[in-house]
Amino acid sequence: RLRMAVEELGPTFIKGAQVLSNRPDILPAELLKELEKLQSEVPPFDFETVQKTIEEETGKTIDQLFAYFNEKPLGSASIGQVHAARLKNGKEVVVKVQRPRVDYIVETDIAIMKEVVRRGAAFFEQQGITNPMDVIEAFDKSMQKELDYSNEARNITQFRNFYKDRTDFYVPMAYKEHTTRKVLVLEFIKGCKVTDVEQLKKWNIDPKDIAERGMNIYLTQIFEFGFFHADPHPGNIIVRK
Predict the structure, then answer these.
(1) What values do phi and psi take at 199, rounded to 5?
(2) What's the pTM?
(3) Sorting pLDDT into bands at 50, 70 and 90, what band is 40?
(4) Catalytic residue among 46, 134, 140, 231
(5) Do residues 84 and 71 make contact, with C-beta atoms less than 8 angstroms apart?
(6) Fewest CB atoms within 10 A around its CB: which of 130, 136, 153, 193?
(7) Angle in degrees, CA 190, 193, 194, rounded to 5
(8) Among 171, 123, 114, 101, CA closest to 141
(9) Cα–Cα dist 192/35, whole Å
(10) Given its phi and psi angles, is residue 9 left (phi above 0), alpha (psi -120 to 50 degrees) or beta?
(11) 77-129 confidence digits (pLDDT tens)
(12) Is the pLDDT of residue 203 over 80?
């Protein structure tokens, strides 16, 4: 019921629940398992909207841009959903398309959150929470950046450059010439979720080794480059065969 309520409340609350789904120190296991569904299993929106968004953003039809485009989404999350496609040059890609009116919805939700914090200042202080408005402001700033996919494309390109010489970590290429504020085209990479232990074992990959490599890569991002993936939930990390 809680997961369904979050879905009804929309993108801003789904994003918050995604963050909570990685916090076993705060929430019980049963709830975590349910909230994990919000990482890539949010109810999708229809293909007509996907097509309209792509064509309005790029000024081209889907047929002009792609040799193939799968109308059924690979996954759907808080802000957008992802479709498999093939460019005219034969490259396999994934196309992330933003949900309709999501920018307006997020703006409205953040305004409501700020009003709740203003009205409940005394209550939050009694609970030992002294800076709730700072938290909301930071969340707002993060959401605004996330709503512009051209930011994501630039970050991916920089990220990819940092790790171009590593053999144990691969960053997919962003096709910036096909990317806009609401449409992001990325190289398609095959693999399984980092949490899919059963599949890892079928591929003779040791989950413990993956955990150690993952921590090494993540700590390198933070302490060596100071440029890190800020949303490392299992829906965003895959392991290749």
Answers:
(1) -70, -40
(2) 0.79
(3) low
(4) 231
(5) no
(6) 130
(7) 115
(8) 114
(9) 19
(10) alpha
(11) 778 899 999 999 999 999 999 998 899 989 999 999 899 989 998 888 888 87
(12) yes
Distance set, CA 196 to CA 145, 162, 192, 239 (Å): 30, 27, 6, 9
**Pairing of β 192-193 and β 238-239:** antiparallel
Which letter, b or e, does each residue of 14-36 get, where b requires 16 or more Cβ atoms within 10 Å of its Cβ?
Answer: bbbbbeebbeeeebeeebeebbb
Query: CA 179, CA 95: separation in Å to the nearest integer?
Result: 9
Our answer to whether residue 134 is catalytic in this structure is no
Contacts of 84 (CB under 8 A, 6+ apart): 69, 70, 74, 92, 93, 94, 95, 188
> Distance (Å, rounded) from C-alpha 128 to C-alpha 108?
27
Bridge partners of 75? 82
| Exposure class string for 73-85: b at 16+ Cβ within 10 A, else e | bebbbbbbbbbbb
Supply 122's token pair: 């005394």
Provide the token pair at 31.
Answer: 């709830």
**DSSP string computed for the chain:** -HHHHHHHH-HHHHHHHHHHTT-TTTS-HHHHHHHGGGGTBSPP--HHHHHHHHHHHHSS-HHHHEEEE-SS-SEE-SSEEEEEEEETTS-EEEEEEEPTTHHHHHHHHHHHHHHHHHHTHHHHHHTT---HHHHHHHHHHHHHHHT-HHHHHHHHHHHHHHTTT-SS---PPB-GGG--SSEEEEE----EETT-HHHHHHTT--HHHHHHHHHHHHHHIIIIIS---S---GGG-EE--
